[in-house]
Amino acid sequence: MNRKIYFNDKFIEFIEPGSQSSQNQDFKFFQSIQNEKDLKKALAEFLDPGKTTNLFVYNIKFSEALRLLKNDFHYIEAAGGFIEKQNEFLFIRRHNRWDLPKGKLEKNEGIKEAAVRECEEECGIKRLTILKELPSTFHIYPFKNAHALKQSYWFYMTTDYSEKLVPQVEESITEVRWFSRKEIESEILKDTYYTIRDVTLAGLG
Prior knowledge:
Layout: E1 4-7, E2 10-15, E3 27-30, H1 36-46, E4 54-58, H2 62-72, E5 74-85, E6 88-94, E7 97-99, E8 102-104, H3 111-123, E9 129-143, E10 146-158, E11 173-179, H4 181-188, H5 194-204
Parallel strand pairs: 2-4, 3-4, 5-10
Antiparallel strand pairs: 1-2, 5-6, 5-8, 6-7, 6-11, 9-10
């Protein structure tokens, strides 16, 4: 399960009892998290733009941290896909970085339905089949003089669609391409967002 929340180029990771951090990087530990006040103190440091250190937080379950965050931040849900066809994988180019197709849920829309719809709209692709769910990703970003917390649900999908793909230019997508595993390692992982890197590695297994 993904227990990291990203903000810019850093993350806060919640380490539950008996588990270890997924990464070895520069970090600071918060081991005395006992209540909401302690968590808010850690978050204030995490959201300080002048500090670049990753934070590891102990003694609070990730589910409880999410509950508190959803109360304090504007909470947004999105869904998208890691799409495979004959051992190649689909990526989009958006804002000069490689990305995966995803978008916000519409009112009364299911998560799986949203994921398929967004992939179809952003890539001009069809005949998508969901095989399994991948770990969600989380990130915080500025929103209306405050912050929003976005949870993106991800699904491993397959397709046999072989017609021309069409990038959704109104969503700032300039290119849609299939990549081999080797190309993902040499090109995508060096030029994408941390959340997309997490999804990609989870999808590749």
